[in-house]
Design brief:
Length: 165
């Protein structure tokens, strides 16, 4: 839901920005070569006489629009970050200290590392790392893929999508 809303904001913001840019460009092309031009069209005459004011107003509108659009997108991202943090807190309720440390390490490493790197964490040894990784696999949080002597530990995609922003 939040991702779709952010995409909608981005798309709408882009369309409005392009429209404002087109309006400013058209006004510039109409008014620049016709500064000394006399016309009976009142709208064109108004645009020629006040093109600087019109351009300034459109620039101010564009900047204000950009600011408010960025503000709304930032709020959506804040909500998503808060939801991810809350989900991580719930997951942490069911994990031991070493498992929490491993989960944080995996999140820092974009969800993939080796068991040897986990064993090098402070307060972690080979046996403790092995047992913690096994418990996490039993809880269906990670996958362990042996590759020769190396065991790759990968965070489940569903967990990554929840925890990563």
């Amino acid at each position: 839901m939040g991702n779709q809303l952010v995409k909608k904001y981005k798309k709408t913001g882009f369309i409005v920005s392009v429209l404002l840019f087109v309006i400013v460009t058209v006004l510039a092309f109409i008014t620049l070569p016709t500064n000394n031009f006399v016309t009976e069209n009142n709208l064109l005459l108004f645009a020629i006489e006040n093109h600087t004011i019109i351009m300034t107003i459109l620039i101010i509108i564009s900047v204000a629009f950009g600011y408010f659009w960025a503000f709304f997108l930032y709020k959506e991202l804040e909500k998503k970050n808060l939801a991810s943090k809350n989900m991580l807190d719930v997951v942490f309720l069911f994990l031991g200290d070493s498992e929490k440390k491993i989960l944080n390490f995996l999140v820092e490493k974009n969800g993939k590392t080796t068991q040897a790197e986990i064993a090098r964490l402070q307060g972690m040894g080979k046996v403790k790392a092995f047992r913690s990784v096994q418990r996490m696999q039993e809880k269906n949080l990670i996958d362990i893929v042996p590759h020769g002597k190396i065991r790759y530990v990968t965070l489940k995609e569903s967990i990554i999508s929840i925890l990563k922003n």
